[in-house]
């Protein structure tokens, strides 16, 4: 039997119940602490930019992207751009 295109490109299979299943594995992504700007960006991507979120996640670049966001906007700038919370409403 000739090799499939997947095998020609270095892919391997394993057999389950008579079926050949490709061996896929996600890339290891370095875990890091994500700051408040990174968490806000993650929330925005999940809710409003779903395709970009999935692309970053599957390519293994999501945490790198979120780290860049935290580096670009340090905590001092967050305080400048954040609105203070109102403690009580006046009716």
Question: Roughly how many Å is the radius of gyration?
Answer: 22 Å
Low-confidence regions: none
Number of strands: 2
Quaternary arrangement of the chains shown? single chain
Task: Compute the separation of the termini in Å.
Answer: 79 Å
Shape: elongated
Share of residues in helices: 40-55%
Average residue-wise pLDDT: 79
SSE order: HEEHHHH
Main-sheet strand order equals: 1-2
Report on the biggest sheet. 2 strands, antiparallel
- Number of DSSP helical runs: 5
Q: What is the structural class? A: mainly alpha
- Roughly what fraction of the amino acids lie in strands? 5-15%
Task: Quickly describe the structure.
With 91 residues, this protein is mostly helical. It has a domain at 30-80. The chain has 5 helices and 2 strands.
3D architecture notes:
By secondary structure, the chain is mostly helical. The chain has a two-stranded antiparallel sheet. Helices cover 49% and strands 9% of the residues. β1 and β2 (19-22) form a beta hairpin. The chain has a domain at 30-80. It has five helices and two strands; from the N terminus they run αββαααα. The chain has helices at 5-8, 36-48, 50-59, 62-72, 75-81, and strands at 13-16, 19-22.
């Amino acid at each position: 039997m000739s090799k499939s295109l997947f095998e020609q490109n270095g892919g391997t299979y394993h057999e389950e119940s008579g079926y050949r299943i490709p061996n896929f594995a996600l890339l290891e992504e370095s875990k890091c602490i994500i700051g408040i700007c990174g968490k806000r960006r993650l929330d925005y991507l999940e809710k409003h930019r779903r395709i970009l979120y999935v692309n970053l996640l599957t390519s293994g670049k999501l945490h790198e992207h979120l780290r860049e966001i935290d580096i670009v906007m340090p905590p001092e700038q967050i305080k400048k751009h954040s609105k203070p919370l109102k403690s009580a409403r006046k009716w």
